[in-house]
Design goal:
Length: 91
């Protein structure tokens, strides 16, 4: 269901990365979108790995109180809830 969306976001992220670099607001925002789609597609390990790459950059570049940093900071809990829900048959 989310396959085409994931492809579109990956393409967008690659374009932003090429145009603006890893530390640009748009690139970080697209990374967040990709994390959310990966979780919805049960790609928890990939989402966690992306979190590990992106979160430190968000804190450093955008600051700890920026809305994207705050949203990404909650990603580990979101991944855990979705993973546990999937295991229990809720998702």
């Amino acid at each position: 269901m989310y396959g085409p969306v994931e492809s579109l976001i990956r393409d967008t992220l690659a374009t932003y990365h090429r145009l603006y670099g890893l530390e640009h607001f748009r690139t970080l925002e697209a990374s967040l979108s990709l994390m959310e789609i990966l979780v919805l597609r049960d790609k928890f390990d990939e989402a966690s790995a992306l979190y590990g790459q992106v979160f430190p950059t968000c804190k450093r570049v955008l600051g700890p109180s920026h809305h994207i940093t705050l949203h990404i900071s909650r990603m580990p809990q979101y991944i855990q809830v979705r993973r546990e829900g999937k295991a229990l048959g809720y998702c």
